[in-house]
Amino acid sequence: MELTIGCTTRPFRGCSFAESCKYIAEAGYTDVAFVPVKSDNTAEELAQTRKTAIDAGLNPSMALSRPKMDLRLDAAVDEFSKHIDNAAKIGVKWLVELGVGDPKYYKDYYELMRRCSPHAQQAGVNISLKPHGGISLTVQDLIDSFNKVSHPAFGISYDPGNIIYYTVGKLRPETDIDKIAPIVTTMIVKDCVIKDGKPDVMVTPGEGLVDFEKVISGLIAGGFKGPLYVECVGGTEIDEIRANVKSTLKFVKDILAGL
Fold first, then answer.
1. Of 47, 38, 45, nearest to 87 (Cα)?
2. What is the pLDDT of residue 141?
3. Alpha carbon separation from 240 to 32, 157, 245 (Å, rounded)
4. What proportion of the chain, given as a percentage, has pLDDT over 70?
5. C-alpha span between 90 and 178 (Å, rounded)
6. What per-residue string of b and e applies to 109-123 under the rule 16 or more CB within 10 Å gives b?
7. Residue 88 CA to chain centroid, in angstroms?
8. Could you identify which of 24, 111, 141, 166 might form a hypothetical disulfide with 7, taking C-beta atoms 3.0 to 4.6 angstroms apart as the criterion?
9. Which domains are present in the chain?
10. Whole-angstrom distance, CA of residue 219 vs CA of residue 159
11. Is 71 strand, coil or helix?
């Protein structure tokens, strides 16, 4: 089975966006994620970001987002709508949402997503909420969020490493995969280890606690059709990181080939 597999810029922290795109393309990926985009970017900045990715041979298809919930709700909706518009101008198809951590914002967060999802759909952008603690800590929290927003442009980005990270290993990403699979629209390929009681996601997929074959096969059995994006790998030196980014692409492709 062939699905779109992209890579985020996170493994190349400290590198410019152009350098990250170069390394991601050289590793064999078709798409770059965590494309830098903000609500207040100028037209020139957006055009340059898109050009940088395209010149490297990559689709700038995913970006991160986190609404400014400390604003009044109407102002937060306006700001997030501008973020959506700017992402669309670059060519981003997926905005990965990090949710909110403070319960006092939960109600407004759901309302914001309900109000912004139609705008995202019109702009050709899909919002995808990932497990990131707080409002999206567990599989059930993700399902509840999906149901409360209830819009075709709002889905779930399944990040198995974060399930382990934010619960410090108390919950497993393979559990209840059949329940969440039908609403997963993107997957983040991230592993996690726990050392001396502390979780760490800066590990190459396949070398941590996540059973990726079980997670990926479970998602596909539930109707998931991609895309997948590699977020983290191990390593401290650039050559090691580049090698791990490349080997992770093969790791994911080998799993897909066996399904």
1. 38
2. 97
3. 19, 27, 9
4. 100
5. 34
6. bbebbebbbebbbeb
7. 16
8. 24
9. 5-257 (3.20.20.150)
10. 12
11. coil
